[in-house]
Amino acid sequence: MPFPFTQENAASRQRLEALISDLTEDQLRLMSHDGWTIAAFLAHLACWDQRHLHLIRRWKAGGIDESPVDPTAINESIKPLCLALEPRVAAELCRMSAAAIDAELETVPPDLMQAIDESPNHFRFNRSLHRNGHLSEIETLLGR
Q1: How crowded is the C-beta side of 79, counted as CA atoms within 13 Å?
Q2: Per-position pLDDT tens, the chain of length 144
Q3: Residue 135 forms part of a structural domain
Q4: How open is the CA angle 102-129-2, to the nearest 5 degrees?
Q5: Is residue 31 included in any domain, yes or no?
Q6: Which residues of 81-111 are buried (b: 16+ CB within 10 A; e: fewer)?
Q7: Which of 66, 112, 129, 130 is most exposed, with the fewest beta carbons within 10 Å of its own?
């Protein structure tokens, strides 16, 4: 049985893949008002999807432990790394990370999902919430 977030994650991943396939090198290098290029936004999405992937695998193997998150500190810490990546590498990491976390989330047992929801950890099973926000930012930057 699919989880409630399955269709939304798949739709946002398809939206992401379509956007990535249409982006030119120049577009990937477009800079937002706060200093993130489109490629860096994509790398940022990859980082957060990878964090979620790591946590799910760790929790499946050893049970849930605390994983506090300070989004601002993390985002500002990874920003130079995201900006340093070659744009196509960032785009491919984003595509691969989205596919990997979406596939992994489909294997989470319902009891583990409930335990994660009840834990103090900030964890979004619905990855589309994060993806779609940044995809809309990117589309605005592109004038779409």
Answers
A1: 13
A2: 467 789 999 999 999 999 999 999 999 999 999 999 999 999 999 999 999 999 999 999 999 999 988 999 999 999 999 999 999 999 999 999 999 999 999 999 999 999 999 998 888 899 999 999 999 999 999 998
A3: yes
A4: 40
A5: yes
A6: ebbebebeebbebbbebbeebbebbeebeee
A7: 66
* Distance separating alpha carbons of residues 136 and 49, to the nearest angstrom: 18
- Judge whether 1 lies within some domain: no
Structure tokens at 107: 């294997």
Taking the CA atoms of residue 144, residue 44, residue 74 and residue 71 in that order, the dihedral angle to the nearest 10 degrees is 50
**The domain that contains 20 carries what CATH number?**
1.20.120.450
* Torsional sign, CA 24, 126, 132, 34: negative
Range(s) of the domain holding residue 130: 6-141
Specify the number of domains making up the chain: 1
Q: How far apart are CA 98 and CA 1, in angstroms?
A: 21
CA 139 to chain centre: 17
Interior angle at CA 28, CA 17 and CA 93, nearest 5:
50
